[in-house]
Amino acid sequence: MNIVVCIKQVPDTTEIKIDPKTGTLIRDGVPSIMNPDDKSGLEMALQLKDEQGAHVTVITMGPPQADLILREAYAMGVDRAIHLTDRKFAGADTLATSHALAGALRKIDFDLLITGRQAIDGDTAQVGPQIAEHLDLPQVSYLEDLKFDGDKTFTMKRHIEEGYQMLQVEAPCVVTVLSSANSPRYMSVGGIVDAYQKEVEVWGFNEIEVDEKDLGLKGSPTSVHKAFARGLKPAGELYEVETDEAVGIIIKKLKEKFILN
Amino acid sequence: MDFSLTKEQVLFQQMIKDFAEREVKPLAAEVDEQERFPIETVEKMAKIGIMGIPIPKQYGGAGGNNVMYSMAVEELSAVCATTGVIVSAHTSLCAAPIMENGTEAQKQKYLPKLASGEWIGAFGLTEPNAGTDAAGQQTTAVEDGDNYIINGSKIFITNAEFAHVYVIFAMTDKSKGTRGITAFIVEKGTPGFSIGKKEKKMGIRGSATCELIFENVVLPKENMLGKLNKGFGIAMKTLDGGRIGIAAQALGIAQGAINETVRYVKERKQFGRPISGFQNTQFQLADMNTKTEASRMLVRKAANKKDQKVPYSVDAAMCKLYAAETAMEVTNKAVQLHGGYGYTREYPVERMMRDAKITEIYEGTSEVQRMVISANMLK
Ligand SMILES: Cc1cc2nc3c(=O)[nH]c(=O)nc-3n(C[C@H](O)[C@H](O)[C@H](O)COP(=O)(O)OP(=O)(O)OC[C@H]3O[C@@H](n4cnc5c(N)ncnc54)[C@H](O)[C@@H]3O)c2cc1C
Ligand SMILES: Cc1cc2nc3c(=O)[nH]c(=O)nc-3n(C[C@H](O)[C@H](O)[C@H](O)COP(=O)(O)OP(=O)(O)OC[C@H]3O[C@@H](n4cnc5c(N)ncnc54)[C@H](O)[C@@H]3O)c2cc1C
């Protein structure tokens, strides 16, 4: 089985601040990470590899620094990494991004394409479904779980508002995965030691199959009207405990913050 | 000169910090309180290769280097010094001497199991009457045909209760003093070999520190590590390497205490403002951070020298001395800046101050490090 996973490098939004004047993200000095949904998608692929012996490829479109997440993917255990980068891709919105990725995917044989549900910076959840449309493949979004039934079919569990939907889907297909699907493995130490010995294939416009007018700024119909910062709420902590214990925890937290004495 | 980490080390640091934060930190207080060896953490570390960082790939290790290994002990110790010393004793005191002195057969037999973390390693040098004066060994190994018969005991042995392989030292020729000591590899379950009393300790309370007892233990000659009567040199060289691990542990404890303190002083208010606003707080923090960073430079330099295969004994002694004393000073200040709260087990700095003390004692006390450093200056 050949699996391709689309991964995106994003700023770690738990550490990001917003410029109060312009309403845009201050990216300076903010560490970059592999988008969490994508990492869960990658874990799903690696589990299939562990169980069935799949060949796993990761692909990212992004600036040279995005190399880091491809090395991370190698250290987690992928077999091949492709870095799409070209001036012609710059200034892409979701549509142009999905065109570029689809252009590369036309050059790769795969049974299963995995993307994250959504990137924590752009947050549109559009790229996965758009790729499926460009390639004319069936798509299942918001995946919680996936099992290979053999003979080119998968059983999938999809998150919907009221619960779950179970589907049987035939390869090749596209799925978008939620970060709640699993907890991704750590990079292995041995994998890290080898990560920079491996080759990352760098592909530009000439390596992919796409119409130039669909790329970059020209291929991006989106225009941003206004960006503003919503009031930020810090991430909460969730405890599932009995009432008495819950009261104890709340009191302890309030004391730690010196709100109670 | 280049002080920056390599690309691999940057990736490694990202992984190990994340691992320490998510897998190790949540257990630290409990492991200390209950004096419980965190075996589940060892299993998780084993799975991703942390138990075999500097062991070459051909022996089942990760094929990393000593700088990476020191970074691992640092980051683990920043959240839980018990976990840090488990890795340090296992790697530096058991796997390393087998790697450096073992026959090919011994390496094939022990290193893959140690590197994968399936087996845990320990090191037995100290005896009731042979502490700093390690040459005063009373455990004996008497030749008997194809075997050696071991009798005696060891105390204060880290990982003892949970280990599968022990590198131990015994007198093979009492008349020769340090030239009469030989190293051996002992496996758990060897008849006559047992684990004695477990110590109740001030700090690193989750690490199992016990007595080893040898009663007519029959060891085949192939369990001898290195040559006959060359054990003292092996012990000293092993401790040189081990000191980098303990220095990294001390460094981690200091950094962990700083991290806790920076968070705390911004939240705690007195006289109507956060205590971080007082210049005394700021100056204390500046000193804590400067000394900790200096420790880090010494640790990385010693580890890098070991990786370059150039002599590093003095560097190891210096980083151990400085990082240990810094850990003690920094954790003491961290408790002070936490006030009464810092003296309670509600806050981790209380544990960190107790954990810091051992780094001035084991693998050569600070006095021993000063002897090593000055002897080299005056020779
Ligand atoms: C309104 C708008 C304007 C933008 N303008 C610009 C611009 O001018 N210049 C600029 O550089 N960027 C721009 N971007 C960002 C760029 O569009 C995003 O990199 C890309 O469209 C992904 O969109 P998203 O973050 O919403 O991803 P989503 O659609 O939320 O991502 C879904 C999944 O698609 C996959 N994916 C997404 N992006 C990539 C990628 N690059 N490589 C591999 N897989 C990927 C991942 O698996 C991800 O989990 C803009 C984004 C928006 C929303
Ligand atoms: C928690 C813990 C874990 C340990 N783990 C291990 C292990 O895994 N394996 C192992 O073999 N050992 C281990 N040890 C033993 C440790 O290495 C020794 O405790 C240490 O070397 C000191 O020996 P000692 O306790 O006998 O102290 P002593 O040698 O009695 O020292 C007492 C004091 O006298 C000072 N002193 C001694 N000689 C001199 C001198 N010549 N000049 C100046 N001052 C001197 C010392 O510096 C010290 O301050 C461990 C100990 C502890 C507490």
Automatic annotation (TrEMBL), chain A:
InterPro entries found in the cross-reference section: ETF_a/b_N, ETF_b, ETF_beta_N, Rossmann-like_a/b/a_fold
Keyword RNA-binding belongs to the record: no
Pfam families per the UniProt record, alphabetical: ETF
Annotated Electron transfer flavoprotein alpha/beta-subunit N-terminal domain residues: 22-212
Keyword terms of this UniProt record: Electron transport, Transport
Coiled-coil regions listed: none
Domain of life: Bacteria
Keyword Transport among UniProt keywords: yes
Protein name as annotated: Electron transfer flavoprotein subunit beta/FixA family protein
Organism: Marinifilum caeruleilacunae
Automatic annotation (TrEMBL), chain B:
Name the UniProt record assigns to this protein: Acyl-CoA dehydrogenase
Acyl-CoA dehydrogenase/oxidase C-terminal domain mapped to chain residues: 229-378
Family: Belongs to the acyl-CoA dehydrogenase family.
Family annotation (CDD domains): SCAD_SBCAD (cd01158)
Domain Acyl-CoA dehydrogenase/oxidase N-terminal, chain residue ranges per copy: 6-118
Organism, as annotated: Marinifilum caeruleilacunae
Domain Acyl-CoA oxidase/dehydrogenase middle: from-to ranges: 122-217
UniProt-listed SUPFAM superfamilies: Acyl-CoA dehydrogenase C-terminal domain-like (SSF47203), Acyl-CoA dehydrogenase NM domain-like (SSF56645)
Domain of life: Bacteria
Cofactor(s) recorded in Swiss-Prot or TrEMBL: FAD
